[in-house]
Amino acid sequence: MQTNPYLIDFYNTYDEDNRLRSKHGMVEFLTTMRYIQKYIRPGDRILEIGAGTGRYSHALAQQGYTVDAIELVEHHIDVFRKKTLPNEPVSIVQGNALDLSTFPDGQYDITLLLGPLYHLYNSEDKRQALREAIRVTKPGGIVFAAYVISDGSLLDEGFRQQNICVADYIKNGLINPETFAVSSEPKELFELVRKEDVDELMSIFPTTRLHYVATDGCSLLIQEAIDRMRDDVFELYLQYHFAICEREDMLGLSSHSLDVFRK
């Protein structure tokens, strides 16, 4: 099972933890936590697959939940362990989302797959990661799977910040010039999808979708304005975002989405 060298190089220097601590980045974190809190119950056991530096794992462990984590990038594991508090009920091992064979079937009440699907570039691998996440979840348990959404990302990274050269992507065959659907390769790092792609991926699994959420909504498109907000205005913005984040007419504007489903 090959590891994408571009991915390792990227995360060895990228500060993923602080991305979720800026005001605009907190929208994604707070939205995801809000949906986790809808379903988590006292005594639940959690697995986080692709835990990164542990933003979610530590937050949940510090609430008293037992959390097992698996992470691919050694640098992230080092940061994760350094941030672990004494007696915090959390553990981490190195591993790959495509092979969770060290974890038995049906062990976890809550399974978080909040990063690996960002970096899998074909349906077979994405379904394998989903299959493994579902396998280790108890019957009736809840899986949270996150994606990077193409239209929100193109609006932000392509047209607003111009970090992505949309014309080059079209020239290189990575963007369809008629539909603007995006395909990705390992050197582009992030796999960009639309909701219909997620629906197609999930069509083979006997699961029940509970929510499909635009986790950051418009927040990346107006991030400078959000970061300047007074705390009371930011709280009002969060209330607004929570009220609209499942509206179908808003889903494509988000750069990240969360698919919440029951096994």
Verbal overview:
By secondary structure, this protein is an alpha/beta fold. It has eleven helices and eight strands. Strand 4, helix 6 and strand 5 form a beta-alpha-beta unit. The longest helix has 17 residues.
- Mean pLDDT rating: 92
Helicity level: 25-40%
**Straight-line N-to-C gap:** 27 Å
What is the count of helical runs?
Answer: 11
Strand content: 15-25%
| SSE order, one letter for each helix or strand | HHHEHEHEEHEHHEHEHHE
Rounded radius of gyration (Å): 18 Å
Number of strands: 8
Overall geometry comes to globular
Main sheet properties: 8 strands, mixed
Low-confidence stretches: none
Structural class comes to: alpha/beta
Q: Secondary-structure map with pairings?
A:
Elements lengths: L4 H9 L2 H4 L3 H17 L5 E5 L5 H7 L4 E6 L2 H9 L7 E5 L13 E6 L9 H13 L1 E13 H11 L5 H6 L20 E2 L1 H8 L5 E7 L8 H6 L2 H14 L11 E7 L1
Parallel strand pairs: 1-2, 1-4, 2-3, 4-5, 5-6
Antiparallel strand pairs: 5-8, 7-8
Structure in a nutshell:
With about 260 residues, this protein is of the alpha/beta class. It is about 40% helix and about 20% strand.
